[in-house]
């Protein structure tokens, strides 16, 4: 697989997920930044690439467009199976997808930039109001996630066993976003431990927001 083009933004947690997966798979790609806070993702040039106007978007060598981070990551896993990001057994795959979706489908959608911007523009929320909103919904998701990870025999060094996968990718990206809003990770020791294990790996480090060409 070659000639991959990733449209993304350094601070986007969904973009971070895909960058981690690309690094784990050892895939090279062209990095195309779009500054979300400057509205570059809504300009006609990018809308002609991705009509949804969201990042990330991965363009394959034949011009095929893929959007939505989980769909992109599973595509990469199916077409470049080593190292695997999902377990071999059906129950394990379901568990990893469950953990990933607790973050990607329940926490992230209510805390992404367009929602936080709408809180300000539609309801007059200030910075502290927005931060409280963000922390509230992370807590709502992290409380059950911590309980599941702590109580499950399937949890190892990582969310599922001893190798990082899809759930760890989502967890690491979310924890990184949390830090910008002063989120206290102390009540979540298992999540913190898994995150530390992830961030010790070169793929997670190389894909981190602060290491991207558009980092500010």
Short structural description:
This protein is an alpha+beta fold and 216 residues long. Helix content is 52%, strand content 7%. The protein contains ten helices and four strands.
SSE order, one letter for each helix or strand: EHEHEEHHHHHHHH
Q: Return the average pLDDT rounded to an integer.
A: 97
The dominant shape is: globular
What proportion strand?
Answer: 5-15%
Summarize the structure in words:
The chain is of the alpha+beta class and 216 residues long. The protein has helices at 13-24, 44-47, 69-79, 90-104, 108-111, 113-123, 127-151, 166-179, 189-199, 202-207; strands at 4-8, 29-33, 57-59, 65-67. It has a 4-stranded mixed β-sheet with strand order 2-1-3-4, with helices on one face. Helix 4 (90-104) runs parallel beside helix 8 (166-179) and helix 8 (166-179) crosses helix 9 (189-199). The longest helix is centred in the middle third of the chain and has 25 residues, at 127-151. The two termini are 31 Å apart. The model has no long low-confidence stretch (mean pLDDT 97).
Describe the secondary structure blueprint for this structure.
Elements: E1 4-8, H1 13-24, E2 29-33, H2 44-47, E3 57-59, E4 65-67, H3 69-79, H4 90-104, H5 108-111, H6 113-123, H7 127-151, H8 166-179, H9 189-199, H10 202-207
Parallel strand pairs: 1-2
Antiparallel strand pairs: 1-3, 3-4
Helix pairs in contact: 1-3, 1-8, 4-8, 8-9
């Amino acid at each position: 697989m070659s000639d991959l083009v990733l449209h993304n933004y350094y601070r986007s947690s969904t973009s971070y997920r895909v960058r981690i997966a690309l690094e784990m798979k050892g895939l090279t790609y062209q990095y195309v930044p779009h500054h979300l806070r400057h509205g570059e993702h809504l300009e006609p040039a990018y809308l002609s690439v991705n009509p949804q106007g969201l990042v990330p978007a991965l363009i394959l060598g034949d011009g095929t467009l893929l959007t939505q981070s989980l769909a992109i990551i599973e595509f990469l896993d199916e077409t470049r199976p080593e190292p695997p990001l999902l377990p071999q057994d059906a129950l394990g795959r379901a568990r990893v997808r469950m953990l990933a979706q607790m973050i990607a489908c329940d926490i992230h959608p209510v805390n992404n930039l367009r929602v936080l911007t709408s809180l300000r523009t539609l309801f007059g929320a200030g910075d502290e109001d927005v931060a409280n909103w963000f922390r509230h919904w992370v807590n709502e998701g992290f409380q059950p996630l911590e309980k599941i990870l702590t109580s499950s025999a399937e949890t190892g060094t990582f969310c599922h066993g001893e190798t990082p996968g899809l759930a760890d990718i989502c967890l690491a990206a979310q924890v990184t976003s949390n830090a910008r809003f002063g989120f206290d990770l102390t009540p979540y020791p298992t999540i913190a431990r898994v995150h530390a294990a992830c961030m010790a790996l070169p793929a997670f480090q190389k894909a981190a927001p602060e290491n991207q060409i558009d980092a500010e």
